[in-house]
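User: I'm putting together a small comparison set for a docking exercise, and I want a reference complex before I start. The sequence is below, and the ligand is iron/sulfur cluster. Could you produce the 3D structure with the ligand included, as structure tokens?
Assistant: Of course. I'll restate your input first, then give the structure tokens for the complex.
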Amino acid sequence: MHWKELKAELLAVGSAHLTGEPADEYIARSAAGPGAGGAGSVFFAVGTHRVKFGLNPKSSIEIIHRGGGIADVYYGEHLISGKLLQPGCHCPDQAFITVTGSCIFKCRYCPVPLQGGKRKTIDEIMKMVESVRHRVSAISLTSGVLSSIDEEEDYVLDVVKHLRFFDLPLGVSIYPTDQTPDRLKKLGVTEVKFNLEAATPELFATMCPGLNYDQIWRALDRSVQLFGRGRVFSNVLVGLGETDEDLENCIRKLTAHGVIPVLRPLNPVAGMTGSLRPSADRLNRVFSMHERALAEAKLDARGALTMCTNCAGCDLVPGKDE
Ligand code: SF4
């Protein structure tokens, strides 16, 4: 089976049961992203391709760790040999850090807690990056919202100022205000990701009460002016109840504006428990739309230096997953 089709099947399951030799050094434990707050996740690579699995002892996929990172994935009748990747912070090759692990907003699909999640101090963040500096090529930041959108942005900007010390490409994904793109650009940030989350404004209003779809669009458009085409990204979830047509319209609008979409399979947690992850067939259809739209807009996802399009653990990425 071709890697792209195989990865779609693996992403449709999304989790794996890890057995074999101890594999602690390969397990990423995250406060954000798919699998946040769970038993952790692992990155499995075959050559330059990779996929991330949330760890779940009940999963139909088994990964047997043979030692030293060498691993076999058993999925149905498939046996896939590859290796486990050591995460930097959160994902391989990057120090990807969640600044604030709680959020005053309650997006339905998001497992980040309302309260009780810790905000990392700047000193902690600097030490985290320092500890993986020798094996990462970029730093990425995301964050919940501790007390207000403005206060969070000020804090993240302060973190960014300190992280410039490392002289690495820096990606930032936070909920934006109208000033966010200019402020991040001024500090030397390389790439930004502002997430539309849902394919339509109607779905967004249901999924993300209190947040503003139009504001995200304004931030995306301003970011393309400042950072350039292909340096601006936006997550759109697949599986919130949108149609393929909704998704195609959203993908095409993003690429026409110079933004690279990140098409993220829904992980049915938090308020979406009971929903289903999108099927492999649907992920393949969405990949085809995504691939066509990027090609027509002359955008190349392979140029991403930071964040999810560079990582490619959780999604199918045209150009990378071929
Ligand atoms: S694709 Fe994004 S959310 Fe998934 S592991 Fe990579 S950086 Fe994290």
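The longest strand covers residues 78-85. The mean pLDDT is 95.
User: Thanks, that's exactly what I needed.
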